C-alpha cells in the first residue's frame, strides 16, 4: 500500500473505511463445522481461504456457490463457482470434497441453493462455515440467520487488513464504495425480509454517513 500521502482517499476517509471494514468482520473463533460454503464473488481469495481451512480440517466438504454476474463475468467467464473449484483443485483439494452450485445470483440464493445441494448429498448439517470476502462476513451471516436459522453459523474470510485488501484490488475508491454498499445492505435488507437485523454502532453509522456524503456510493441499492 502506498504511504498515506500517496492515497487517493484522505486519511479521514481511510479511518472511516477502517471502522466499517472492522465492523463487517464478525470475529468468530473458527472451529470444525459440518460443511462450508464459499460465497462466489470477484475475489479468488475466498477460494484460497477455503483451501486453507479445508487443509486445517475445519470441514469435510465445501460448496462453491455462484454463477455469473455483471461484476464478475469478465474475470470468471464460466461462473464464479466453476473457477473457485478449479482453483481449489489446483491447490490439491480432492474433487470429492467439492460441490459446485453454479446458479446463484445473490447471497440468499447462495445459501438456499447450497443448502439444497448439501441435503441431496446426504451431509448432516449442524454447523456451517461461511467463507466470504472480508467485508461481506456480517451480511452473509445476517442472511444465513434469516434463511437457515437452525444452522450454527461460523464466518470466515481471508485474514487481511484494509490496506492489504486495497492493494489486492488496486482501486481504493471501489473498495470503499463496496464497504459502504455492503453496510447499506446490512441496514436495509432486514426491512425487506432478506436478513436478520444487526446492531450498527454509532461511530460506524457516522462513518457511513460521512463516506456517503463524500460520494462513495457506486455500490448502493435503490431503497
TrEMBL record:
Gene3D superfamilies: HUPs (3.40.50.620). InterPro entries: Cell_Envelope_Assoc, DUF218, Rossmann-like_a/b/a_fold. CDD domains: YdcF-like. Residues 46-150 form the DUF218 domain. GO terms for cellular component: plasma membrane. It comes from the Bacteria. This is DUF218 domain-containing protein. It comes from Streptomyces spinoverrucosus.
